[in-house]
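Re-running DUF6516 family protein to confirm reproducibility after the cluster update. Everything else is unchanged from the original entry.
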Amino acid sequence: MLDEFEIEALLSLDGARFEAAEGYVVEFMARRTEATKERPHGLSYSFVFRPLDGEPYVRFDNANAVERPGGKYVKAPRAYDHWHCRSGDPGRPYAFTTAAQLLEDFWKEVKREMAERKIPNDL
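Result of re-run:
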């Protein structure tokens, strides 16, 4: 069961845009949707960290499905919750548990990417 307080906090970020460091932004989209097999939590979201004039370095979203690694004989179901690291990354499944954990995992990847790229930050 999802915590309604966490969901409301997540939804309050819809449309928010923050400067993460000089020349870099974090952008949020979060909306309620009908709960479906693909989005059982009833949320549509996209969180992006990118340079002001460039492609995303980190993106967590559930806009489309990505393939899950499957076995030789069993095809794994497609995952809608997923994340990307760097432009051109086809995405990897993300195990959505709670809205708070989603935000925590996004910020963790943003901080990792900033450190790897030596982007100064106070996050």
